[in-house]
Design a protein that fits this description.
heterodimer, A: about 900 residues, 25 helices, 21 strands, elongated, B: about 120 residues, three-stranded antiparallel β-sheet, 5 helices, globular
Chain lengths: ~900, ~120
């Protein structure tokens, strides 16, 4: 008996726990009877041993489930499962590669976009409590509904606004550029001109030295500067004795008093100096200031906005009489991150949404692949279940495969993100990247990719496992014989997945299609000028060296030299460039009575040299401004067609006179000598705004002008020539903001291009995934019906019938997906409305194109399995068991 | 699944041992040893169940949902009986058995029409 008890150790522990006593009982009973019958002990023991060994083997095989109390067995089983799964995956490279690539694309694209969003939108500021850092947005509904934050507030307005008790720690500054020389060369540095202590609201202390003292901030204070960490490192080699060193800023000796830590990024500026000007001299409608503040302790954003609304109301009451733009004036505190990223954020969420859809499609695809795969093992599974394999055990084997797929897919996904991120960043022109940030794959991105991987793995694993474990052993065992390899439910589920996948692809395609059409429509809007082979750059003549007439002399001399420089067709200067014109002036038409406080405004661009022919813009009427229009000559202007149709409708505009400037400081009337065919002046998508062009020599001097150079050949190639022409005239004069006119055009539509490019990429991926999905399911369906098809062929169906049989199925699935997808696209179309240009959110042509494209892809994907089905050899198929 | 060879005894047609086991339970709940006795007796010794084989088979029936443990007869015959575990057919087990027996009956009927086999 003791021996037998020992022998029972051949059984697994769980079996012994359960049956040991009963087996011992039975054994005792057997032995008693054997003795009673006078059987030999030897024979009894041989039988017993045989019984033990055979049944122990059966028990162990019937149930791989390890007892919960045995950690060792769990690990062992896990190892076995993973190894087994790997072998299974390697055996089916087609399935595995499709699955891994789907996941890698889905996860990688998502992670790259996340890194991008993380860098640009969600976490661009490392300041303490960034949520309480706000900027003040100002909206003048009479001028435009646009809420402006950057250089949007005048000094008197700031003085009104700072009454707000819910806001504290003001940073008020004007943005500009300064030439900084610490020795060898002059360099143009993005600069913030501080009106108040610039660093208070950021909650950062200077890393070296100090910030500004009130005495330094006062008008006429000493010339001091605080510099950024990166310029300290880059330009001064991290000189520890930098504080107290004297650098020249626009030629003025200036003492460096502090270095800020690397976290401080004020809109890409690197140099901070006191503004120096007397605030009392600043007019109310001159709005150079950007305001930052912190919410006062205990105050909420809503409270701050209530208070600001009251203040705006008071200002309106007091000043709307003199300055009409104050009617309906709104000021609001907006979290700074929100304000800076408001526009790109919209696109970003759209793209994250799109990316999520792609990932969903990838998961649906994988699920359906896995389902198709598990269908082929359906009977195996049912048998295992019948034999006592635990449902969990079966699920675990499926899970093991998914774990591998997810691991490899997620890893590849990170690689995709790593490769894709620079491409993503390159879509943003440097000029639009005001923060100068370069997103990287940091731990947050890795974490995100990990979460996506786990999430997808769960989504992917759930369905097949659910399907497998729901199977009862009997169902599958009864479905003996040919044909039926998967239950009706599994088939329906897989079809559902494909339909859903197609629908998601349709949504993405529709969105991408609409954006493409918008983009094309925008492209079709004539620019009014030729952007090719035109180089632009900006020059700012320092007031220390150039004053009064010397400024225009400098520019005129430069234009004259450039006109004879080989490689230059034309050169001209202007105060602003097409597509980004912002400078406006109030005016009135001479002879038309207009109340002084409601003067209309128009864009005003001061031009010198052959401006229109440099741009290849054309005249609609009259003559262009030229060398005749000097200081002493009669004062003249050109206007554009938009100006004429808005303000001088009917009659001849030539010879009409216009008074430029505010009502209280009118300039002498000027005569319209030419009408310019419209140039897209304010942005790419809006119709040209009314604009006046004023000759360089008849205007108060501007020391800051854009230089435009039309070149014979490639525009950037001529840059060094132009630089040397300028250096020959003034070796200390830097140029900056160098870009071709084509760059200007590109950056004017970068947002549209960015969204469009990515959405198209996603849509293509989605389409490819849907194709793979259809192919997979149809292949599976054909394989399952090989015998049925063989029978059909044997009884006289021709191959065309078989082809049709399979393709009809494809068409059914596709139509289902299309219907669902188009309905969803119609519902979601309105979210795109803001990004659309001259195309409705449910543009029939776009939707038709989407349907056709999807149909073609679906039929192509279904064709191969269908064709294979039609090639089935009836003899082989019937014999095939 | 390749590493788990299908044990043939729970696939239809059922193996004689399983069939006798299920038939033994067809009249009501029995404890393990009684199942063995019944099966061995009814098969005229054609089926022999050692203790290990017996309980391994019971375990498989339980796992497959063909049989389940039950509280046993309402009035135990004696104290010892009360401590034993009883097993009974599940409805599924009963269905499977009925199907199987019907198939076998059909087979036997057919076989009976072959005079040369008699």
């Amino acid at each position: 008996m003791r021996l037998y008890r020992l022998l029972l150790r051949v059984y697994p522990a769980w079996f012994r726990d359960r049956f040991e006593l009963e087996i011992l009982d039975a054994f005792a009973e057997d032995r008693r009877r054997a003795r009673d019958r006078g059987r030999s002990a030897l024979r009894f023991w041989i039988q017993t041993l045989a019984d033990l060994l055979v049944s122990a083997r059966a028990v162990r095989r019937s149930r791989r489930r390890t007892p919960p109390d045995s950690q060792r067995h769990v690990m062992e089983a896990l190892r076995l499962d993973l190894g087994h799964a790997l072998v299974q995956l390697i055996r089916r490279p087609g399935f595995s590669i499709a699955a891994v690539l789907s996941l890698a694309l889905g996860i990688g694209g998502n992670a790259a976009l996340f890194a991008f969003a993380d860098g640009f939108v969600f976490n661009p500021f490392a300041y303490p409590d960034p949520d309480r850092l706000v900027t003040i947005g100002s909206t003048f509904p009479r001028v435009s509904e646009e809420e402006r934050f950057i250089e949007a507030i005048s000094v008197p307005e700031y003085q009104d606004i700072r009454e707000a008790r819910t806001l504290t720690s003001w940073a008020v500054f004007d943005l500009g550029n300064r030439d900084m020389s610490g020795g060898d060369r002059a360099e143009r540095v993005a600069t913030a001109l501080a009106f108040t202590d610039l660093f208070a609201p950021f909650g950062l202390r200077p890393q070296l030295g100090r910030g500004f003292t009130p005495a330094e901030l006062a008008p006429g204070g000493p010339d001091v500067a605080v510099i950024s960490h990166r310029i300290w490192q880059g330009r001064f080699g991290g000189d520890p004795a930098i504080v107290g060193r004297v650098v020249r800023i626009n030629g003025v000796p200036t003492t460096v008093v502090g270095v800020m830590p690397p976290e401080l990024l004020v809109m890409g500026t690197d140099l901070w100096i006191p503004w120096g000007a007397d605030p009392l001299t600043m007019p109310r409608h001159f709005r150079p200031l950007t305001l930052l503040a912190r919410l006062a302790p205990g105050a909420t954003l809503a409270e701050a906005n209530t208070e600001l609304a009251t203040i705006a109301g008071r200002t309106t009451t007091a000043h709307a009489g003199a300055l009409k733009e104050y009617e309906g004036w709104r000021v609001a505190a907006v979290p700074w991150t929100t304000a800076l990223m408001r526009e790109i954020r919209g696109a970003m969420f759209l793209l994250l949404g799109a990316m999520a859809l792609v990932l969903l499609i990838a998961c649906a695809n994988l699920s359906s692949l896995a389902l198709a795969r598990s269908a082929t093992r359906h009977r195996d599974m049912a048998i295992c279940l019948a034999l006592g394999a635990g449902r969990w055990g079966l699920a675990r084997q499926q899970l093991a495969e998914v774990v591998w797929l997810a691991l490899v897919g997620g890893g590849l996904g990170l690689l995709v993100a790593y490769v894709g991120l620079p491409a993503l960043v390159s879509l943003v022109p440097p000029i639009a990247n005001t923060l100068g940030l370069t997103p990287t794959i940091g731990w947050r991105v890795v974490l995100w990719a990990g979460a996506l991987t786990v999430g997808s793995a769960i989504v992917v694993a759930l369905l097949p496992v659910y399907q497998a474990t729901r199977t009862t052993s009997n169902d599958a065992l009864k479905a003996e014989g040919r044909g039926l390899t998967s239950s009706r439910g599994a088939l329906r589920l897989r079809h559902g997945l494909i339909v859903g996948e197609i629908a998601l692809a349709v949504v993405l395609l529709a969105g991408a299609g609409l954006l493409v059409r918008s983009f094309v429509n925008v492209q079709r809007v004539p620019l009014g000028f030729d952007a090719d082979r035109t180089l632009t750059m900006r020059l700012t003549l320092p007031a220390q060296r150039y004053r009064g007439a010397a400024i225009n002399d400098f520019f005129q001399r430069l234009l004259d030299t450039l006109a004879t420089t080989p490689g230059v067709r034309e050169a001209s200067v202007a105060t602003q460039l097409p597509l980004q014109s912002r400078l406006t002036t109030p005016f009135r038409i001479d002879g038309v009575e207009a109340p002084a406080d409601t003067l209309p405004t128009a864009l005003i661009t001061v031009v010198g040299g052959p401006y229109l022919s440099t741009l290849r813009a054309s005249m609609a009427q009259g003559r262009a401004l030229d060398a005749r229009d000097r200081g002493a000559a009669p004062r003249v202007i050109m206007v554009n067609q938009a100006f004429v149709s808005r303000y001088l409708p009917g009659g001849d505009p030539l010879g009409r006179r216009v008074v430029l400037g505010p009502a209280d400081r009118p300039a002498p009337p000027v005569e319209i000598v030419g009408v310019v065919a419209n140039i897209q002046n304010s942005d790419r998508r809006s119709a040209a705004a009314p604009e006046v062009f004023v000759p360089l020599h008849q205007q108060t001097v501007n020391n800051q002008l854009f230089l435009l150079v039309r070149t014979d050949g490639d525009a950037p190639a001529l840059l060094s020539t132009v630089r040397s022409v300028i250096a020959a005239q003034d070796a200390d004069q830097p140029v900056y903001a160098v870009q071709t006119m084509a760059d200007v055009v590109a950056s004017s539509q970068f947002r549209g291009r960015f969204s469009m490019t990515l959405l198209v990429a996603f849509a293509v991926i989605a389409l490819a995934l849907a194709g793979v999905g259809i192919y997979g399911v149809m292949s599976q369906a054909v394989a399952a019906r090989t015998q049925e098809i063989g029978v059909r062929l044997a009884v006289g169906a021709d191959r065309g019938d078989v082809l049709g049989l399979v393709l009809r199925q494809v068409v059914r699935l596709t139509l289902g997906g299309l219907t669902l997808g188009l309905a969803a696209a119609a519902a979601l179309g309105t979210t795109l409305r803001r990004s659309l240009f001259e195309v409705g959110p449910f543009d029939p042509a776009t939707m038709a194109a989407v349907a056709v494209l999807l149909g073609v892809v679906a039929l192509t994907a279904g064709w191969l399995p269908a064709w294979r089905a039609s090639r089935v050899d009836p003899i082989l198929a019937l014999r095939y068991e | 699944m390749s590493r788990t060879p299908p044990a043939s005894d729970l696939r239809r047609p059922l193996s004689p041992a399983v069939l006798y086991l299920l038939l033994a339970l067809a009249d009501g709940a029995l404890h393990g040893y009684a199942i063995k006795q019944e099966a061995e007796a009814r098969s005229d010794g054609r089926v022999r169940l050692g203790p290990g084989t017996l309980y391994a088979a019971i375990q498989r029936l339980l796992d497959a949902g063909l049989a389940r443990e039950t509280s046993g007869p309402a009035t135990p015959a004696n104290g010892q009986e009360a401590q034993r575990r009883y097993y009974e057919l599940t409805p599924r087990g009963r269905r499977l058995l009925r199907d199987e027996v019907a198939d076998l009956a059909h087979l036997v009927d057919y076989a009976r029409t072959k005079p040369r086999l008699a």
